[in-house]
Amino acid sequence: MKTFQLPANSNYGDRPIPVTFPDHWDVHISRIHGYDTPALTEAQIREKLHAAIGTEPISESAAGKKSAVIIIDDITRPTPCEPIARAVIAELHAAGVPDENIWFIIALGTHGVMYRTEFVRKLGEELVENYEVHNHNLFFNHVFVGNTSNNVPVEINADVMSADYKIAIGTTMAHSYYGFSGGAKCILPGVSSLRTIMRNHSFTTTTEFNMGNPHTLMRSDAEQAARMMGLDFKVDAILNGHAEICNLFAGDFEAEERQAAAYAAGHYAAKFVPDCDIVIANNYFKPAEANCAYTPEVIASLKDGGSFVLAANSPFGPCVHFLYDKWGHSAPGGMMWSGCYTKGKNMAHAVVFAEHTVKGMRDPWYIDEHSGAEYVKTWNDALRILDDGTPKKVVLYPNAECQVLDNSKEFYKR
Question: Where are the alpha helices (DSSP H) in 109-252?
């Protein structure tokens, strides 16, 4: 029996789950290229932050500013924000911005709110104790800053707009709507109003696929919005396969994102493995949105009559989303609800390997149980469904939610 440590529990201890494979399985592990890239030290993080791209470092560009807001991504994203936030605060101190005039805003977009335990998981006890931390509210308290060239009205969190200096922290990785996360995505959708986000997201559908595509209409809009609202400085981490910061890009949000995305295209590249009897797509970085690993490029690895496994393990459970959530079995769903992802017609089995789910609520974020998906809590339970004693070709994608496969471009919207 072969054993692989499956990455799991993002933001919840990052404890891997050992999965074993029968000897009669021919198993291919398709890791992202940068899976084992060494993690940066805190000193290296500070150095990369100070070596600003396309602008002056924070210690200089924030000089004379009386207040600063630090926008961070939420608990559904894997960014280890604490060491970056500490380095940012040190730069703000060097610029003369006092602690009492520095606060954090969580870029929730249309996600549910975070609570103290999640604040601490993202920022650590000391920062939560000593600095104000607020959830973004997408329903009210916004400032209108103009329209994009696509006529999207840009309304931004008023507490963000009230700061003299605006910084954001996130991660760059492949994203099915935006091509790559990072850059201006922390602003739109991050701290935008519901009206703004709905107009921006109307440029795509839940079936559109752009993993690793640097040219998307949604990103263009987000960059215009970030420029209009005055985002001064952006920090984007690159993560290895263990959710550790292994590279960092910081500076002007467009300049740093261009470099980050170019690096990410190679870092998150993985080999496409075709004609498989079993495909295992693991979602480590975004388990609350497990279906981010249920993508056409990954499903293309499966031959007709094969079995698909979607793995997503985190105590957080499924996402809360005001656009795409189901919101009950009799309700019309979120503001842009368009149905659940379903078991493929060519699949013998669609197995969801997830220990922590909520029945009903999980359907929009994993694979719809009503379409034939089989939910299991342990890998042994999955094996009882998958292993019939015959030889099988198997591929495991450990980071299916963020990878760019050899075949990704075949699925971009023309």
Answer: 116-123, 125-130, 158-161, 194-201, 217-229
